[in-house]
Automatic annotation (TrEMBL):
Protein origin, superkingdom: Bacteria
Record SUPFAM superfamilies: Ferritin-like
Protein name: tRNA 2-methylthio-N6-isopentenyl adenosine(37) hydroxylase MiaE
Gene that this sequence comes from: miaE
Upper lineage: Bacteria, Pseudomonadati, Acidobacteriota, Holophagae, Holophagales
Pfam family, one: MiaE
Gene3D superfamilies per UniProt: 1.20.1260.10
PANTHER family xref list: TRNA 2-(METHYLSULFANYL)-N(6)-ISOPENTENYLADENOSINE(37) HYDROXYLASE, TRNA-(MS[2]IO[6]A)-HYDROXYLASE
Length: 197
């Protein structure tokens, strides 16, 4: 059983064996994760613009985008450090499946962002556990980076949920309940590959 509590009450727990499958091709895993961090930054920047009438929220989102840009740079540096290259972006089937279920409004964009962050956080934790014995990714600086990413993404999940609840109140809480079931269905249906999700 996972000794891990995700920042949102996810309804499909990822089995620990997933991490072994994800670590089968670490270069692909890191490449995919670099693309995810870049998309997280772009998404946060777009949302910062949507909150232009709420300075506190837009500043929070701009800061979040900066953090994601920093993660993007550091994953690229890790690829470089291992002597690997950034592979082409194969797309993110998980995020695409969530977006296909979404309405057009801001509420779903915020809640999807929160869910992606929370799932990333769970999977980074599993990777951190499994990477400890890995011949390449078991190095202490890399494990420390995974832990840092996991904590940072947990904060992002809570920030997105907080923004949704501040703006949409009970509607956000009800919609998150609906989304937690959908996210569990989506994540259970995806094959395991060398990607975070
Ligand atoms: Fe990130
Ligand atoms: Fe994040």
């Amino acid at each position: 059983m996972n000794a891990f509590t995700p920042p949102l009450p996810l309804r499909a727990e990822t089995p620990a064996a997933w991490a072994e499958a994800a670590l089968a091709d670490p270069e692909a895993l890191l490449s995919d994760h670099a693309h995810c961090e870049k998309k997280a930054a772009l998404s946060a920047l777009t949302l910062a613009q949507a909150f232009g009438d709420q300075p506190r929220a837009s500043v929070l989102l701009a800061r979040l985008a900066e953090e994601e840009m920093g993660h993007f740079r550091r994953v690229l540096e890790a690829l470089q450090g291992f002597g690997w290259t950034l592979r082409p972006d194969g797309g993110n089937a998980y995020a695409q499946a969530l977006h296909r279920l979404a309405g057009k409004g801001l509420l779903d964009r915020l809640l999807i962002a929160a869910l992606i962050e929370a799932r990333s956080c769970e999977r980074l934790w599993l990777l951190e556990q499994a990477a400890a014995g890995h011949p390449v990714l078991g190095a202490a600086p890399w494990l420390a980076f995974l832990l840092e990413l996991e904590r940072c993404e947990a904060g992002h999940a809570l920030s997105y949920r907080g923004l949704a609840e501040e703006r949409f109140g009970d509607q956000a809480r009800a919609r998150l309940d609906w989304w937690l079931d959908r996210e569990a269905e989506v994540v259970r249906a995806l094959p395991w590959r060398s990607v975070v999700h």
